[in-house]
Structure formats: C-alpha cells, structure tokens
Amino acid sequence: MTQGSTLQKARASLKRLWPFFGASRGLWLIAALATVIAAATEPMIPALLKPLLDRGFEGAGKVDLWMVPALLVLLFGVRAGAGFVSQYALARIINQGLQKLRDALFEKMLRAHLGLYDDKSASALTSTVVYEVQNGSSLLINALIRAVRDFLTLLALVIYLVYLNWRLTLVVALILPPLILMVRRLTGRLYRLTQEAQTATVNLAYVVEENVLAQRDIRLHQAQALQNRRFAKLSNVLRQLSLKSVVAQGGMSALTQVLSALALSAVITVAMIQSAQGSTTVGGFVAFITAMLLLIAPLKSLAEVSSPLARGVAAIEGGLSLLDDVPDESGGSYRQSRAQGNLELRGVTVRYRAAQTPALMQVSLRVQAGQTVALVGNSGSGKTTLVNLLPRLIECSEGQILLDGIDIAQWDLACLRSQFAFVSQHVVMLNDTLAVNVALGQEPDRERVRRCLIAANLEQLTEQLGLDALIGHNAMQLSGGQRQRLAIARALYKDAPILVLDEATSALDNESELAVQQAIERLRKGRTSLVIAHRLSTIRHADQILVLSSGQIIETGTHEELLAQQGHYHHLYQLGFKARPDGVEQAQTQEDHRP
Asked: CA-to-CA distance for 214 and 227, rounded, in angstroms?
C-alpha cells in the first residue's frame, strides 16, 4: 500500500469518525489556535539570535539588546503555554470522542445480527471495542494534529529561511524528493505489517481466552505443554512482526537523519563560500543554521507521520467495519403486550454453514396455548435448534414460524422475545448482584425476587448471601445446581406466557429437583411450555412428546402412546430410565442415549 492509499484510507476513517469527535467544535478551535501560535514561535528563536550576534558583541546597542534574553524567556513561555493548551484540548476531544465511539460500538454489538458471534470470537470483539478503536482513533487524530502543527512550523521556518537567504534555502529543498520517495516505499510495508500484527495479537488473545475457559480440562488431560507450545508459536510470530515494524520505522527515521545531515553539510559549505565573499554575516549564518536545525524536527515528523497513520487506519478498520458493515437484527412492527402462546412451525429447515446436513429438515408442528410439549432425542437431533428458533436466536433457512397466527418475522423483535422465558442447560450469569441477575432486564422488585428465589429452592442461599451480594464471574462461586436454580428463578421472575426449558433440571440432585419441579409446575399453568429433558419426571406428564432424530420429528404422542408404539421413544426409555422404588424416575448414565 502506497502513502497515497494510506492517506486516502486515513481521510475516509477520519470522515467516519467525525460524528464522534467533531461535536467539540469549541475545543477544536482552541486546539487549532494554540497550534498556530506554537508553530509561529519557531522562527522567532533564530530571529532573536541574529541581532544578538550581529550587534550584541560589537558594543553597539547594548541596552536595547538586553531585551533579547527577556524576549527569549517570554517566547518560550508562550510556546510552552500554547503547547499545553493544545495538548489538553486535544486530550479532551479524544477522550470525549472515544467514549461516544465505544458506547456506539457496544450498543451496536448488542443489537447486531447474531451471525456476528459466529464470525468473531469473544477476544476479537473485546479487542475491537476496548483496545483497537482507542489506539486507532488516538493515533489518527494525534497524527492529524501533529501533521498540521509540523506543516505550519515547517511553513513558518521555510518563509523565514527564504527571507534570510533564498540560495541556501534551495539547497535545503534538495532533501524533499528523496525523502518523499523513501516515505512512499516504506509506508506500504508498515501498513501490511501493522495489519498482520493485529491479526497475530487477536490470535494470541484467543488462545488465552480458550485456556481460561477450558483450564480444568487442560489440567485434567495434562495438556499444559501442548498449550505452551501453541502460545509460544503465536507469540513468536507477533514478536517477529513487531521487530519488522521497528525496522521499517527505524529505517525511515535513520534515512531522514542522514538526508538532513547531507543537507546541513551542503548549507555549511555554501554559507562559508558566501561568508568569504562578504554576502552573509555571522548572525545571519547562525540564524539560518538554527532555523534549519529547527526545520529537521518537523520535517522528520512529517516523514514519519505515515507510521501512526498506517497503524491508526489498520486499528480502526475493525471498529468502523463493525459499525458500518455488520447488519442489525431485523424485526417487524407487530406488537402485543402478552401473547396467548399458540405456536406453529410449517416446513421449517435450518442449515448451519459448517454442517453438511440440515440441523432441522421440514419440521411441522402445532402447539396450543397452555400445552406442555416435550422434545426428546439423541444428542444432535435438533432439539435445542428448534427452541432457539422461536425467539429468533437463530433464523430458519426455509419455512415459517407463527406465534398466535402471526409470522415471528413480523413481530417487533423486543416484543417477541419478551414472550419467552428461557432456561438453558448452559447457565450464564452477570458479575452483578443476586437481585439484578434474577430480574435481568427489569428493575428488581426485591420482594418479588425473594419469592422467585424461594420458589427455585434457593432460600438458604438467599439468607446466606443476601440480595445485594455480587455473585462473581458467571456465578462460578456457586455450585452447578445453584446456578441452574438461579436461572429458573430468573425465568420465574420474567413471568412470560411461553416457557422454554432446555435441560433445566440437569444439574439438580433429586431432592432439589422435586422442589424445583413443584415451582415449574405452578409456572406452567396457563402457559405454553416446551421442555427438553432427559429425566422422565420432567416429561412424562407432557400433553405431547415429540421424538426427534437427525433433525426430523419421527414420533409424536403422549408418554403412554409412545411406549405402546414400541418405537424409538420406547427404545430411548429402555436405555435411559429406570424407576426407583419411591416412584421418582432417574436417568441412567448412558449420556449418548438420553431422550
């Protein structure tokens, strides 16, 4: 990528960022004025040295020239003050803009199409929202301000150099063509290295994320050495890319200094020739050399501005892509405060991109309001896919799903999801209070929260911790059964007309299950319930049992009807259940054959 294309991308990124960073127009004006003042002070330094050297040491005008040191102090004071004001105003602009940008990205992440989470890992999204946009935005805006400041400084110094000695200024100008050529060649390499380094950083973070999530399995299987080698390999890739970036940046800086030294040597040579001819004074020569030396810093900075521009563009692209290219979830406009709970699937097929065969294939069924429908089948038969279709957590590839006779695609999405209380086998809790986790999405009613916790057999936990206790990352300080019951308390609190239980009692012992089953039975009254379970006590009294296999419904009926058919359900029943003497059926340990 050339410098021109980098600058084009930078302009496009800055244009897209302007709505977030451009609101502080007053601060931008202050920063611009302070930058102009700071740039204007640069040529004044050699300008004050000239009369001091030409007249101050010759005995003439000593009284007036005592003003020169005072003016130098004043000049540096103005320069320092302007620099501070510019830096502070820019910091305010960047931090306010970053807050707006991060808020917009997080809001976008919450409303984005769920396919985003299939394409991006948690570490990649975290890096984009928290780190990359901050680094990229700061680099771009700082590079822009720096380029403007250095350009103004360069312009002021060049004007002064031309005023002092236009012939020597022409010698200085010879540095520009090779400098521009060098920058164009190195910028493309630097941009490519930056993109590769970002990808390597995300890959490294993903390995850390995986090892945090799977730390128990890794220890159990003694896989630490394997993971160490995996991490070291990716870490080495990142190290090499970082070193290559340093070489590109350092090479640009070194060549700039060499070219500047060549120009300075040429100027000194020509100036000595002019001095011998009497066409320049000591003060004029020193002023020119000083101005030229001051010229090197902004010239070098402008030559290197492509580096932060390239890194800023590469870093910000992920965030801007998330904002602009990722579609939002789409819904209709139909709203109803509380659905009756009639569900119908018509020829529904679901195909996952990574799977060769459909997860569901031409599934049709009807569930009347208030009915309890149980879904059974081997692992991978499509049970969880089917229930995830209802609140549109996934989309069907073919077919139609109706709620109260209205296609769910026509429902307002928030309204549609408010009709479902969902208890999954994978419990997810926030690092917040017990009350907030139960009343998730609603303002906690403490008494109501307490009743729901008691109904979910968590009375003892409530007394021990209290409603305001922080439960930690994903409530990992609680036992599996407690976390499962906490999810059930959340469903009780939501009080939705449709209840979905996906292995909701899988982590409960028999005593806890009996208490929770009573709460669930009370919750089911007057509600439509879809139950995925492997325990017979959960499904035997269902109004309808659907047996799934390979994404298709192969049997339908009540518990007694399906047993009488001597079919697949009967086979699962024989494999997966046995009755205890006290009448509580308990699943055996054949995990692969649980209905």
From this structure: 11
Beta-strand pair 398-403/498-502: unpaired
CA 206, distance to chain mean position in Å, is 13
Dist CA 298 CA 78 (whole Å): 19
For residue 252, the one-letter residue type is M
What span, in angstroms and rounded, lies between the C-alpha atoms of 469 and 450?
A: 13
Tell me which amino acid residue 81 is: G
Percent over 70 (pLDDT), the chain: 83
Spatial separation of the C-alpha atoms in residues 32 and 497, rounded to whole Å: 59
> Which domains, and CATH codes, for the chain?
3-325 (1.20.1560.10)
Of the candidates 14, 305, 25, 8, the residue with the CA atom closest to the CA atom of residue 136: 14
Segment 8-41, tens digit of pLDDT: 776 777 788 888 888 778 888 998 898 888 888 8
The two tokens of residue 52 are 């001091």
What's the whole-number average pLDDT of the chain?
80
What is the amino acid identity at position 435?
A
Tokens of 110: 């919450």
In contact, 137 and 95? CB cutoff 8 Å: no
**Sequence-distant (≥ 6) Cβ neighbours of residue 525 within 8 angstroms:** none
The stretches of 421-500 forming alpha helices (DSSP H) are 434-438, 446-455, 459-465, 480-494
Biggest CA-to-CA distance, the chain: 123
| Structural contact between residues 438 and 449, judged by C-beta atoms closer than 8 angstroms | yes
Give the C-alpha distances (Å, rounded to integers) separating 18 from 24, 28, 107, 346: 10, 12, 18, 48
